[in-house]
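[SOLVED] Need 3D model of a four-part complex

Original post:
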Amino acid sequence: MTQSVDLNADMGEGFGPWCMGDDAALLDIVTSANIACGMHAGDWETMATTMRAAARRGVGIGAHPGFPDLQGFGRRRMTMDSGSLRNLIAYQVGAAQGIARFVGAELRHVKLHGALANIASEDKEVAWSCYEAALAAMPGAGIMVLAGSAQQAAAEEIGAVAIHEVFADRTYNDDATLVDRKQPAALIHDPDIASSRMVEMLQQGAIITESGKVIPTRIDTICVHGDTPAAVALAARIRDALLTHAIEPRRFRCVLTTVE
Amino acid sequence: MTQSVDLNADMGEGFGPWCMGDDAALLDIVTSANIACGMHAGDWETMATTMRAAARRGVGIGAHPGFPDLQGFGRRRMTMDSGSLRNLIAYQVGAAQGIARFVGAELRHVKLHGALANIASEDKEVAWSCYEAALAAMPGAGIMVLAGSAQQAAAEEIGAVAIHEVFADRTYNDDATLVDRKQPAALIHDPDIASSRMVEMLQQGAIITESGKVIPTRIDTICVHGDTPAAVALAARIRDALLTHAIEPRRFRCVLTTVE
Amino acid sequence: MTQSVDLNADMGEGFGPWCMGDDAALLDIVTSANIACGMHAGDWETMATTMRAAARRGVGIGAHPGFPDLQGFGRRRMTMDSGSLRNLIAYQVGAAQGIARFVGAELRHVKLHGALANIASEDKEVAWSCYEAALAAMPGAGIMVLAGSAQQAAAEEIGAVAIHEVFADRTYNDDATLVDRKQPAALIHDPDIASSRMVEMLQQGAIITESGKVIPTRIDTICVHGDTPAAVALAARIRDALLTHAIEPRRFRCVLTTVE
Amino acid sequence: MTQSVDLNADMGEGFGPWCMGDDAALLDIVTSANIACGMHAGDWETMATTMRAAARRGVGIGAHPGFPDLQGFGRRRMTMDSGSLRNLIAYQVGAAQGIARFVGAELRHVKLHGALANIASEDKEVAWSCYEAALAAMPGAGIMVLAGSAQQAAAEEIGAVAIHEVFADRTYNDDATLVDRKQPAALIHDPDIASSRMVEMLQQGAIITESGKVIPTRIDTICVHGDTPAAVALAARIRDALLTHAIEPRRFRCVLTTVE
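Solution:
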């Protein structure tokens, strides 16, 4: 195969007695897993269990920090100054490293969650604060960014290894932002449409918007979901379509700098 | 001076808007600070602020993990299996490392908190589980143990750098355990008595119990408290008494193995 | 029908984005619902949604308070003095009343959850503390007690309306306690065995233990579960068996005293 | 005395091991206490202790619900839809009632806290949602509103018993809103200025803004604070000034409708 792409999904999003999504099924599909770090979801048990399962299958592991809001699953915007944000991110990335070391896995990347990710995709200062803290806590971490957003701009300015991400099940506006979830055309449910669209984007090296506009961008990873059986089926279809078109699902390359 | 000893205190035990104790005063007295890690007290802000202040004064920094019980301050016993305990410790030690790296400080040791420490001082298996996870998350960490307890036994068996601790304001039973807090003679409030007792223990290299029994032990660090003005005054008096008797308050030596 | 019995199940045991069990299916089977109150599970949303659904179907509603331990789902024992316990119960019962009033439903009973219920079934003082607070917060509440346990003794001494409960899927020791979950014979999975056993107990007015011992007791309610599809099927089978034997599933009678 | 006014303060704002402010001192000064309900501060213990102390001194008791954000003390804005808000308020008001009943005290009013109060003072729909739920959970509750704000408008429309509040230590803009805390002139620290200003407002029956504008309004209660010794001294001075000018500090009248 001449081309490859990473496939990532959020995982370990349970808490205590509660599960979310079908992590086992996803681990057979994706090549990178973003692990919730205890603030919006995930606890020490969930994190350890999920990281062990991911490591066993060779799936790359990343920290997925979010707002401290379990009840709202980190999806509510909270006003937080940049100093607090930095500490919050360093805490979560460190906690993920602690668990990763304990289970003998390697943490490779960081991806922001939920409302925090949304704010960071609009506001470069917020993204910068988060990434600066993530890199201080974990030098050399790959920073997974929404391609074309303020997240990408911040990661580039900060000199991070940016992993450019597109979404398999979301449509795009002409400025490369995602169509708002409240809009009817925001979500793509049809596996055929989603998978052929992903293949097309990868072949063209560009985001293709709802209007048909082509926005050239590097694409390192595709985000898929596993919260419903349909989402898992969609993810599997995309993986198949990639293979059919000689695009290999392979975790992104990442060479972490030595710590200390 | 021919002899030295570490002076440690729990710090960063606030949460959100709430403070506890006079950390600023303590930082002029102690040589090591045990920082709460977010489960029984301490949050990302408190941790960062306290570590920065400690690092600025050359005070050694340690993680102080406890049970996940903010409302009970980690002082209520909770039944938790050893697998959960390991993950819980790895999470907290990792979080502390994340903050330490972000603020440019160095984490050197781990000391258990509250009810978890009490259980670990009685039950070697519990202590072993906690220390094993702490060392996996932070190879080479100094493990601060209650001298003569199951904590010490576990740390020795596991081959950890054990930092042997005695308490300045607590009396001892003849089996080297602390007199129960509910007993009238459990706490020492008189600064003269507490400081001369510490000097005597250090000079003899032994715990001296209420009955006068002498139990030889290595003593690396003295635990003092800062939750009341009287506690801070007591800590200061002990520091002075040590200096008067040519015992230098100095943070314990610790050479961390390189991570990764 | 000449006989009736209440069928109760724990419900509303989700939290934030997480669900647990099939509440919708259970509401077609049971006649009383025990609603988690936010400490071990349940939040303001879950509580409101579940109470609305229960009220719509005429299912009786009760508060189901537990230990403040979301991550452990209230299943870990915590040491808590009786003063704290009282406040903790009053808080949760009050919160459930607040939601019940807001959604236009009526709170009728209180049943303890998890580790707190276990302790209260062994220790009459603990049960007494909890029930006293529950009744102060909600005068006249029905107190659902494990038949034959310290819970029952406490409720009787306190003069509460005690709702005597037996478990459909658990076996009994000869002292009327439940066989420990860790024992192989603790759980009954076979719907035929469970349902015929329930019918027999109700017809005899007695708990029938594993050894065949018959312990006469009043039986007001049967506890069923809904956390797995098999549990829901078991509950449905029991309901059917009751009807077949002319035992009507009907919510227990409860006349609340007027508040204020 | 021919005139009277209520003096209110937020209390019970500790959590677990942490205290905030000098509640004991404040209880000798104020006539109404707003009790935190466990979401931004306050737990079952703190609530019970504070309500008992308030009831003992004849100080009126109210619920003081806020956002579910302990670490941020409810001062961070969170996006929450009106359905969630209603449930959140009903939960907290109910919990406060549960504790009040258990300690034998009477809950009389509801006042919103922090960021939630700020939003409700700007957005009538938010205020309306909160008050509607509060009144459903506690029929007849007095609703303490920031005089001249959207809070007041909502309470009036909903037909609630509105308790009109002015702040002793905050300055006002010409539209009756509070000067933003970030502005240099937002806070009044001088006890002479604050107390004479309060007397003037009460005598004129009007808010007097920084520019000198007089905005006629009913004033039922004055908000004072107790988080610092200076704040307590300021509150005491205001009380003295009121007495000197024949204005009696007296808790507002409130006749709760009978529940159920």
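Edit: The helical segments of chain D are 23-27, 44-56, 82-103, 114-122, 124-137, 150-157, 191-204, 229-244.
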